[in-house]
Amino acid sequence: MRAPLCGLLLASLAGQSLALGREVPYAEAREQFASLRQILDCGTWRLQTASGDLRLLRYSLYGQDLLFVDRIGPAGAGERWQVERGYGFAEINNDHAEWQFEQLRCSSDGQAGLELEGLAERGHDQSRWNIHIHLDLSDGHYRYEANPSE
After folding, report:
1. Buried residues in 113-134 as b, exposed as e (16+ CB within 10 A)
2. Where would you tag: which of 4, 53, 81, 110 has the fewest CB atoms within 10 A of its CB?
3. Where are the beta strands (DSSP E) in the chain?
4. Exposed, middle or buried: residue 143 (CB in 10 Å: 0-12, 13-18, 19+)?
5. In a 10 Å sphere around its CB, with 0-12 CB exposed, 13-18 middle and 19+ buried, how is residue 112 labelled?
6. Three-state SS for 149?
7. CA atoms of 65 and 34, how far apart (whole Å)
8. Is the whole-model pTM more than 0.90?
9. CB–CB of 37/59 below 8 Å?
10. Cα–Cα nearest to 109, from 41, 42, 58
11. Can you tell me the mean pLDDT for 13-42?
């Protein structure tokens, strides 16, 4: 009797955690090319002897905006380009967050740092937020800040 009750309890808790949404990964958005709504040039990057370009991607998926950054570098002899790494942001790319972005801008320090800023509206309560993200391209860690917009 105890085992079936524990199973039901676990199933109930798992269902509740799924209801809160999930982070949409970079690979999933990348496959939805038709949902790509905006591309911004963010400058260049350099890590040791490698270098390339950075771009911000704004997708419209699941009734909201999702943001990702591409680190692009030359492939082979530099005749073509490839995405070396994609970066996403858990605070933004939750499929139930209902964020809409405007006034997006991004810039690179020319090395391993990227700054991303914009104005966000949260669909749940129509609150408006100034967001700021500092991304370290070398390890993928980032600092996310959101402050109420006045």
Report:
1. ebebebebbeeeeeeebebebe
2. 4
3. 36-47, 50-61, 64-75, 80-88, 99-108, 113-122, 127-136, 142-148
4. exposed
5. middle
6. coil
7. 13
8. no
9. yes
10. 42
11. 80
